[in-house]
């Protein structure tokens, strides 16, 4: 029963990521691979450990430990993946190249549709990259913020690095 509820909690992950995904991703089955799964019904938390891989359509999330937090109705409010590194890949629209993210921690905040990569963070699409101590991507607004994490005080990466590829001639802007 616990395993079934933990799987159902993970299924809500797919329902919370459609703004960043191919339209058909949310209609695909969610597949979870992990060494262990634990559901804490009182706290509305499911924890998967041991080489965790969660896939749904074009979305793939990996980490050594993935924690899903849900609200009282079972909707996912936060996903935290920790690894060395944790990784995230998803194709945003048909015909576009995948967005790749990595960091020691990846957080997805469903309520404000943001993905935050922390500690050796890296976000890449089409050769355009953002690297820093943290990289935050606001899915709804399509805004990337990068920098040092609060309180880093000289630890970690000191400056961000961005690589922006030139737009090819006759190529439309991607802000649609």
Automatic annotation (TrEMBL):
Task: Identify the keywords attached in UniProt to this record, alphabetized.
Answer: Periplasm, Signal, Transport
The family database entries (InterPro entries) matched by this protein are listed as:
LPS_export_LptA, LptA, OstA-like_N
Q: Enumerate the Gene Ontology biological process terms.
A: Gram-negative-bacterium-type cell outer membrane assembly; lipopolysaccharide transport
- Every Organic solvent tolerance-like N-terminal domain range: 32-142
Spell out the subunit comment: Component of the lipopolysaccharide transport and assembly complex.
Family statement drawn from the similarity comment of this UniProt entry: Belongs to the LptA family.
Q: Which NCBIfam families match?
A: outer_YhbN_LptA
The protein, known as: Lipopolysaccharide export system protein LptA
Species annotation: Halopseudomonas xinjiangensis
């Amino acid at each position: 029963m616990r395993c079934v509820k933990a799987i159902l909690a993970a299924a809500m992950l797919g329902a919370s990521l459609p703004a960043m995904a191919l339209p058909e991703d949310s209609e695909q089955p969610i597949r979870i691979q992990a060494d262990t799964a634990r559901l804490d019904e009182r706290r509305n938390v499911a924890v998967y450990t041991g080489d965790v891989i969660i896939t749904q359509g074009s979305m793939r999330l990996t980490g050594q430990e993935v924690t899903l937090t849900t609200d009282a109705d079972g909707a996912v409010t936060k996903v935290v993946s920790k690894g060395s590194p944790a990784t995230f890949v998803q194709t945003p629209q048909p015909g576009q190249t995948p967005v790749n993210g990595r960091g020691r921690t990846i957080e997805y905040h469903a309520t404000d549709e943001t993905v935050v990569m922390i500690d050796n963070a890296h976000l890449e699409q089409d050769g355009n990259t953002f690297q820093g101590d943290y990289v935050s991507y606001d899915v709804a607004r399509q805004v990337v913020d990068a920098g040092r994490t609060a309180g880093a005080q000289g630890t970690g990466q000191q400056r961000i690095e961005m690589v922006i590829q030139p737009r090819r001639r006759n190529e439309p802007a991607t802000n649609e």
